[in-house]
Design a protein that fits this description.
By secondary structure, this protein is an alpha/beta fold. It has four domains: 30 residues, no CATH class; 123 residues, Chitobiase/beta-hexosaminidase domain 2-like (Chitobiase, domain 2, 2-Layer Sandwich), CATH 3.30.379; 335 residues, TIM Barrel (Alpha-Beta Barrel); 157 residues, Alpha-d-glucuronidase, C-terminal Domain (Alpha-Beta Complex), CATH 3.90.1330. Strands 7-8-9-10-11-12-13-14 form an eight-stranded parallel beta barrel. A six-stranded mixed sheet has the order 2-1-3-5-4-6. Helix 12 packs antiparallel against helix 15 and helix 16 runs antiparallel to helix 20. The protein is globular, with a radius of gyration of 26 Å. The two termini are 48 Å apart.
């Protein structure tokens, strides 16, 4: 009996060790997804391996800072694994690989890199082959870190280094992840376990997982993290949690990552004991100033505040008759002496408006030019809420005198949580390339947010992330690809989603073309598949309320109409879709010409947005020659078929990668196919009650009637109640 108990204890210890965030000599090499895209496996191409060994076996790394220390650690981890050979790393002298700044390296200074580095700023870098040596040069150690990761990316993706010549600088200033993590470690829209931030063991324990998280972010050039939920707990700015935040900031600092916190606007009352949080009250202004001084005394490089105010029940300046600009500016004044910024979210909607689409534009455009220069307006990619497809928010290009940054969602709140494969790189690319016409043709969202169009003082991109304590960080292994894509596009939005997918597959799995090519293609098709089996042709927000996992196009009679599905699709016997032209809500007036004219006409509106802007008859002829009803059915069925094709494609990958990740993704694709069929059948049968038209011949018929699928809304398994708002 004692032997059995001992075995049980040993087993429990092993399980606990395997589930902990910190890697060890065994689990760090396990193919469980923990290493993500920084696997550093031996280069398989023998010719390139010989080249890399000849160019990288000796390294000179100049400098003596915490950042150069982490560069040293990264090289010591990466190069021996990639080259399968010993690598010598020293501080001075000639080498195959030379890394340094003009200040730290005599070689860099004598090679006259300063002229070439003049446009690199504090974060850019150069990689050049000069006189037989590969050189990574930058103005700062952080730039060297980014350059080192870029070189390692080239090696991991089997890039020929002969004659390499790269100059790279980030397109936007703040490249930021937003965590929606609560202080109790539950994560809103998390889907990958508990929060990475273990507040219970902070500040005493600096979990090694924080360092690996920082490494992954720095490898993409990400430089800012908001650690807590925008639905903020006021305790976040109390002494207790600020002390904990110091440890996190210390772990992230060598990797060039600043910490931000989301604040609750009522904090002067709930935390400070004041009787008001009125932003124009002198006592409130003084309270915020002292609070900022306190935070910066603890964390000198603190980034600033992220604020969700007067939205979805969160308190804000409206309670005192003040507008968003007045509300933001009191915070901006408090952090300005320390070089901090305030990021004010533009996600607002009230129950009184006739079209939720209009709300953010109507509230914020009249305030353009009234925000302090250290305020950035953080705007979601579309005008509703991270839907599978939305036209770009008309706020992009409308705020000429207000810094505006783009907010994207990496976590799959509307894409099947961590159960579905839906590479978001194509969505990110779609919005960044969208032309706002703010300053004539070519005024893409990317050029707006990087300050080219309006010369913003501060620029940025934010990605809402679902990082948890799951070993693979994101739940579904392929959600990592969206994290990767966000970081790469935040650094350079001109990169293509397909090239980024190619990089990620090579770094995360293998460089074998027999795997890379079909999986990249699968990824590129995955987002469109998710759109088609959920809400094609411009339909939106057909989800079950709260968790947002399954279909519920029949949702009606909730406390607010804009929480229902019928509010958005407006299906009736005459047709389907939301009229946003002059005969409806006239939301199209928020766009610049020629978009306004294009969206005003059914025949010129792109079909992917058709039902966003028009209520269209069931018999309307589409570009395919099919009627709208037939096209709608076609899209729903093609979405399911795309998932089935993904399954077939993935099945062919067996044996090309490790069994553990292969089997896990295979199982998740089976779940996705099941869910896609449910989405398709629920929506087609429901909309059929309005069109009164048959499902065309040749399609498999739903196994059950509509009532069965309506009942499934209550019976179906939803992964975790923490995802409810």
């Amino acid at each position: 009996m004692k032997v059995i108990k001992l075995h049980i204890i040993i087993l429990l210890v092993l399980i606990i060790a395997g589930c902990s965030g910190a890697p060890n000599s065994n689990t760090n090499k396990a193919e469980d997804g923990y290493r993500a895209w920084l696997r550093y496996e031996k280069v398989a191409d023998s010719e390139l391996l010989d080249q890399y060994r000849s160019k990288l076996s000796t390294v000179t790394l100049s400098g003596d800072s915490p950042t150069t220390e982490v560069i040293f650690d990264e090289l010591q981890e990466a190069l021996p694994g990639l080259l399968d050979a010993e690598v010598s790393i020293r501080k001075q002298g000639s080498s195959d690989l030379i890394i340094g700044t003009p200040e730290s390296s005599d070689y860099i200074a004598s090679a006259d890199f300063e002229g070439s580095l003049s446009g690199a700023g504090d974060e850019g870098f150069l990689i050049e082959e000069i006189e037989g040596s590969v050189v990574v040069a930058a103005n700062t150690d952080i730039g060297l870190l980014y350059g080192t990761f870029e070189l390692l990316r080239k090696i991991q993706t089997h890039t020929d280094l002969d004659g390499i010549s790269i100059e790279s600088t980030p397109k936007v200033e703040y490249r930021m992840l937003n965590h929606w993590d609560n202080l109790g470690r539950l994560v809103e829209r998390g889907y990958a376990g508990l929060s990475i931030w273990n507040w219970g063991t902070l500040p005493e324990y600096n979990d090694p997982r924080y360092t690996d998280y920082a490494r992954l972010n720095a490898s993409l050039g990400l430089n800012a993290v908001a650690v807590n939920n925008v639905n903020a707990d006021p305790r976040m700015i109390t002494d207790q949690f600020l002390e904990k935040l110091v440890t996190i900031a210390k772990a992230l600092r060598p990797y060039g990552i600043k910490v931000f916190i989301s604040i609750n606007y009522q904090s002067p009352i709930t935390v400070g004991g004041l009787k008001t949080a009125d932003p124009l009250d002198p006592g409130v202004r003084e309270w915020w100033k002292k609070k900022a001084d306190e935070i910066y005394s603890l964390i000198p490089d603190f980034g600033g505040f992220l604020v969700k105010a007067d939205s979805e029940g969160q308190p804000g300046p409206f309670a005192y008759g003040r507008d968003h600009a007045v509300g933001a500016n009191v915070l901006a004044e408090a952090v300005a002496p320390h070089g901090g910024i305030v990021i004010w979210r533009a996600f607002v909607y009230s129950p009184e408006q006739s079209d939720r689409f209009r709300e953010a534009y109507d509230e914020f455009v009249p305030l353009d030019g009234k925000f302090n220069e250290n305020v950035i307006l953080q705007t979601k990619n579309g005008p509703i809420d991270f839907q599978p497809r939305e036209p770009f928010s008309p706020l992009f290009g409308a705020m000429k005198n207000t810094n505006t940054m783009l907010e994207l969602q990496i976590t799959q709140e509307y894409f099947g949580f961590a159960n579905h494969l839906a590479y978001q790189g194509t969505l990110f690319e779609e919005v960044l390339e969208a032309d706002t016409y703010a300053d004539g043709e070519g005024s893409s969202v990317g050029r707006v947010i990087d300050g080219e169009v309006f010369d913003y003082k501060h620029t940025g991109m934010a990605g809402v992330i679902n990082i948890g304590n799951d070993r693979n960080w994101t739940g579904h292994p392929f959600v990592q690809s969206s994290w990767y894509a966000f970081g790469r596009l935040a650094w350079d939005y001109t990169l293509s989603a397909e090239d980024i997918a190619d990089e990620w597959v090579r770094m995360t799995f293998t460089n074998d073309p027999a795997f890379v090519d079909p999986v990249r293609e699968m990824m590129m098709d995955s987002r469109e598949a998710g759109v088609n089996y959920r809400m094609p042709l411009g339909l939106t927000h057909l989800y079950a309320q709260g968790h947002h996992y399954g279909p519920a196009p029949w949702t009606a009679n909730l406390p607010r109409p804009d929480w229902t599905a019928v509010y958005y699709h407006k299906a009736d016997k005459n047709g389907i879709g939301f009229d946003r032209t002059k005969t409806g809500s006239n939301a199209i007036e928020q766009y610049k010409e020629p978009l306004r004219t294009m969206f005003s006409n059914v025949s010129t509106t792109p079909e992917k947005y058709l039902l966003w802007f028009h209520h269209v008859s069931w018999g309307h002829e589409m570009q395919s020659g099919r009627t709208l009803w037939e096209e709608l059915v076609f899209k729903y069925y093609s979405g399911v078929e795309a998932v089935r094709n993904m399954q077939k494609q993935w099945q062919k990958m067996e044996g090309k990668i490790d069994e553990a990740r292969f089997e896990y993704v295979k199982a998740l694709l089976e779940i996705q196919e099941r869910d896609a069929v449910r989405w398709r059948n629920s929506c087609v049968l429901y909309f059929q009650t309005f069109s009164e038209k048959p499902i065309p011949e040749g399609y498999e018929k739903p196994e059950h009637d509509l009532q069965y699928y309506i009942d499934q809304e209550q019976k179906a398994y939803v992964p975790d109640p923490r995802y409810n708002r």
